[in-house]
Specification:
Length: 451
Amino acid sequence: MTTPNPKDDPEYDEFCDPANPRKIKFDDILAASRRMVGNVVRTPCMRAHMSDRLGLELYLKEEFLQVTGCFKERGVVNTLLLLNEEQKKNGVVAASTGNHACALSYHARRMGIPSMVFMPVHAPITKINKAERLGGNITLQGNSMAETKLIAMTTCKEKKMYYVNGYDHPNVIEGQGTVGIEIVEQVPNVDAVLCPCGGGSLLAGVCLAVKTLKPDTEVYGIETDKTHSMVEALRKNARIFVALEPSIADGLAVNTVGVNTFHNVQQGILDKMVVVREDWVARAITTLIEEEKVVVEGAGACTVASIMAGLFPNLKGKRVVAICSGGNIDSTTLTRALERGMAADGRLVKFKVTVSDRPGGLADLCSMLANMGVTMRDCVPERAWVKGDVFSVQMKVIVETRGFDHARQLVELIKKHYKEYYFQETNEKTEKTAGVKRGPCLAPNPVCMQK
């Protein structure tokens, strides 16, 4: 009986081979940074206005200012620049749900390289349209990312094209690592870098670059409680499949981390993985818009969210860079994120209260809310399913407050004037101290544990 050749598998990728993981070298990241000059934006790393309130020197690495709105351009550009003439002629293929598709579509067209991008049929409409506007040859096939990738790689081999894995190709990791070089150049005395992690290319590249240039800098990977494949892989020391739930940080939604990324973050270059709850990500999106005047997608906001959630008490008073990896959030998701963020921040309050159904009953409630500076957003009367006399009506009310303290004043006022009421939980302490999973510490000599 002959042993099957793994190269016969349609999904076999010589650059992402589990039997032969590639070790990324800093010299290759440095070469990529020089090679890519003029092809990608050297994004600013600005001090955040919220620094004083958070109790640390926070800098935002604004990767959402790339042309396609995401750091993915770096890996794509580096890979395309390294293709030989035959590979450029035959063209490139990728499978993606969004940001990688946009980056490859834009830069392949700009360099005159044929490209095919496969996206799942349920990919976000806004990202499909954006990839097409950027010049992409988009094909919608597959009900999941796994199915789409299989179709893409099969087509790639049939047409003798070059497959570009968006989160695991060695040249992609090298390109993403240039973010780390820029951070050390822009904030030379940086104490810690917070990096979002999906498939792991950005995390692996940044870890290697930062630890090579400034070994005493701590590097943390950030995932959400619904997208934590790297945490589980490191905990079990194996690239396992993790079933994912729908997430506000869809850019981090990768079921299995990359072969090369996993291999490299195991080399003692990562200090720790941290998992932040998704309601904090929504709050971070809202805060970044209001205080920093920037729009960041969920994957890009998770680094700031982890600080807001109080997951880094060891970084108080330190200089910290949070990588805001992208800004491609569609309007529907943004609207929902703002609503969720305001609710989680105690600024949207929903309650029920039973008032008199006689003339003036609702007017008294509205007057009471107005006098304490509360804005009514919505109000729905319910008469049929109300206990008590027929002259009462239950009002389902959504109001806007200034925050938790203001919301608590509202609760006390309603309790004082009405007998029947029900409020959603508005306890700020509960929000901040809820349990959060933390990944295994990977540093050989953790800086955060040194006195």
